[in-house]
Specification:
The chain is α/β, with parallel strands linked by helices. The protein is about 50% helix and about 15% strand. Among the domains are: about 100 residues, Glutaredoxin (3-Layer(aba) Sandwich); about 110 residues, Glutaredoxin, CATH 3.40.30.10. The chain has eleven helices and eleven strands. α7 packs across α9. The longest helix has about 35 residues. The radius of gyration is 32 Å and the shape is elongated. The termini are far apart.
């Protein structure tokens, strides 16, 4: 009898753990700044609906759809679903409209840009489950994009940014979800890639450039959202100036350019007269050496001719 109750006790405990685990996976958790940071540090997939509790009918609709999504087999197995009314967190990640659905994964997040319908949301979640934006730098840019040789790796929509203007990155990441498997979306931190900054004459922050078949088109519009980016890619880029993608400079190019810049600085500096005098002296010495060499060759030639005679 004791053995029977012991077996059943462990069986009940096992079943109870499964039920509790199922509840933990299927429930919607409240998300604040602490929870967000914990998921960010732990690289946990976190889907969060930011909403308001007052005067927001669309927020109520979005919450209802979110509840229907819970437990759907299409969801990634390692995702956690949450909701948040934390305005400080919303401000921190630049959420300004409500409701907004945000998907955090791989230390970056994408923002849902469609209507709150269960089928469309599930499709978007599956597309957004993995990070879509490629990080490029001085070393990897040309190898991955092949931009100056005709873009054989496809078209590239690239955001050049610094930490002071990184608010564009969520929209870039969200665009990557929308055009996944159709084209490439990337970002370049120009503070860490000075050669690319110089090569493409990056003069503002952020600077967004569309690379297509050996040509480049600068996105120079105030709106920086997924819909406007998508419209630009789909054909509006034809209305802006077309530029040839500059080829990357060689080490010799950088050396000669560096020498030319040094000369220019000296000519425009306080020691201009001394520099010109020194350069003139060097030129005179070189001229004398060349003259002496020519004279030696001439006299040597005459001596050989006299010997033959």
């Amino acid at each position: 009898m004791m053995q029977f109750w012991t077996k059943n006790f462990f069986l009940l405990a096992f079943v109870n753990n499964i039920i509790v685990l199922g509840q933990e996976v299927s429930e919607i958790v409240d998300v604040d700044s602490s929870k967000w940071q914990k998921s960010l540090d732990g690289k946990q997939k976190l889907l969060v609906l930011f909403y308001q509790t007052e005067n927001c009918e669309s927020c109520t609709v979005a919450l209802n759809v979110l509840n229907q999504i819970v437990g759907q087999p299409e969801l990634p197995s390692d995702i956690q679903i949450g909701k948040s009314t934390d305005l400080s967190l919303a401000e921190q990640i630049k959420i300004v409209t409500f409701p907004s659905l945000v998907f955090l994964r791989d230390n970056s997040y994408a923002v849902y840009d469609d209507v709150f319908e269960i089928e469309r949301m599930l499709e978007w979640i599956q597309l957004a489950a993995q990070k879509t934006t490629v990080e490029l730098n001085d070393l990897s840019f040309e190898h991955l994009t092949q931009a100056s040789t005709g873009a054989t790796t496809g078209d590239w929509f690239v955001a050049f940014y610094k930490d002071s203007c990184d608010t564009v990155l969520p929209a870039i990441e969200s665009l990557g979800v929308r055009v996944r498997n159709k084209m490439n979306v990337a970002k370049v931190n120009v503070a860490e890639s000075p050669l690319l900054e110089e090569r493409f004459k990056i003069s503002k922050c952020p600077e967004i450039i569309y690379f297509k078949q050996g040509k480049m088109y600068r996105y120079d519009f105030p709106l920086q959202d997924v819909a406007t980016f998508k419209s630009f890619i789909d054909g509006f880029y034809k209305n802006v100036k077309q530029e040839v993608v500059p080829t990357p400079k060689s080490k010799f190019d950088y050396l000669t350019e560096h020498i030319a810049n040094l000369i220019k600085q000296q000519l425009n500096g306080e020691n201009r007269t001394a520099f010109i005098a020194g350069a003139g002296g060097v030129a005179a010495v070189l001229f004398l050496l060349m003259f002496c060499c020519c004279c030696c060759r001439s006299s040597g030639g005459q001596s050989k001719k006299q010997k033959r005679d």
